Amino acid sequence: MDLETWVSQLHSNFPHSGESIFKYRNEVKVFSVGDYELNVKAFKIPNLINRFVYIYIRGSKAARSYRYARKFLALGIATPAAVGYVECTSFGLLRESYYVSVHYKNEFTLREVLNYQVADHDRILRDWVRFTYEKLHKNNIFHLDYSPGNTLIRKIDNNFDFQIVDLNRMSFGNISFEKGLFNFRQLYTDRQTLELLATTYANLCNKDAGKAVKVLIAFDKRNRETRDRQEKIKEFFRSLFRFGPAEE
User: Does the predicted TM-score (pTM) go above 0.85?
Assistant: First the structure.
């Protein structure tokens, strides 16, 4: 079966075939199709407003993933090769959507590096900061979901290969020194590692390392506080549904 035909039948085949490798809000499966090993990300059905917006205004997450992957590859930025995407609609509104890429067999993600589960911790992080600066920021690309699980890593010979995934949320434009540091706010790591990241980035930008450390630590603190507030709000509403209204 050729790839175009296989992709066109994806909506029917996804639920009962393929190997699931991730499932939370969205699901990621791996499929063997002829000589190809394909990675398919199935996005959950969006809320009613976004079901309209993603079709008529912004493009679905699957469509944006495909578009940005093509842009990355044209700029020489490593991401798994884009194959295609599928959008399913009902009454003119988006339902399921799927993004298809060539499957990248990583050895670990940035998360394992940050958790000290991988050797060469400092070297990998320095190389990753350089990759971020030279490939993304110098090309005016700001990844809006630059969390640890979205950098896939594999060692090739004596070098580390970084592949960026989850591309549906990007912004484009000039990236200042402070904004570049802001891209590292979602890592939830220790102070020593934050200092390493900030110092490395400052050296690449020819900026003051001491200032960079202060700025990144402040971003990290603010991000943690925001996340804690969000968790408390979620827990409050969960408790309401869990216990329900008091009986009279």
Answer: yes
